[in-house]
Amino acid sequence: MSLLEQLFAAELHIEPWTILWREVVGNVFGFASALGGMRRRVWAWPAGIIGNALLFTVFAGVWFANPQDTTLAGQAARQVFFIITSVYGWWMWSQQRRAQREAGQTEPFTPRWATTAQRVQLGLFGLVGLVLCQWVFRQIGAGWPAPDWYYWADAWIFVGSILATYAMARQWVEFWLLWIAVDLVGVPLLFHSGFIPSAVLYLVYGAFVAWGFVVWMRLARHEKAPGEEALHGAETQAEPASLR
């Protein structure tokens, strides 16, 4: 067995669980990505890509002969989606950061709230996606006789993650709330399926995401978007501080 194969198969045994080291490492990169996202750092995206690639091999359990001997199709599929959208988010944030540097701005981008129309679009996509994905995952199967709620939960984790990642790339404050909704379903499902490191990290994410939401909400309230002052100079000067 090569060194790469040994690292890929490395396990941590904590009775009664067998844990893959790549699940632990993948979640460390995931947490680093979340921290970078909260701080509005471009490096959050490549860090997330590394974590997503590792976690895909964990959640596609049956395909990789993992010790859990089960597959979370929604969790595995969302890692693929994360990699794709992270490339988009990485490019988008990099472009904006470059434009800010050229304009002499040193602060990262300004978070903002989605409009009512954008929220409605997110809601409709989420509803349609949830119904469609639970049917698809049911056809794929879980590798064991899973109950109905299992597929609905797995589908929401996938669809909710799509919505949250897209909203993060668009710099909408709501993406934190979407992650909270994903965590509320994800933690019980991961514990139930034996993915303990991921479940524990999701619990940590819960507090972290709540903190990130407060941080972005304050930034959206108090910071001006790039070019805002130039476009609305006189109006901005006249606004009460509480509305900025």
From TrEMBL:
GO annotations of cellular component type: plasma membrane
InterPro entries, A to Z: NMN_transpt_PnuC
Keywords attached to this entry: Cell membrane, Membrane, Transmembrane, Transmembrane helix, Transport
Residue ranges of coiled coil: none
Principal localisation: membrane
Recorded topology in the membrane: Multi-pass membrane protein
Organism domain of life: Bacteria
Pfam short name (any one): NMN_transporter
Keyword Transport included in the entry's annotation: yes
Protein name in the entry: Nicotinamide mononucleotide transporter
Organism: Kytococcus sedentarius (strain ATCC 14392 / DSM 20547 / JCM 11482 / CCUG 33030 / NBRC 15357 / NCTC 11040 / CCM 314 / 541) (Micrococcus sedentarius)
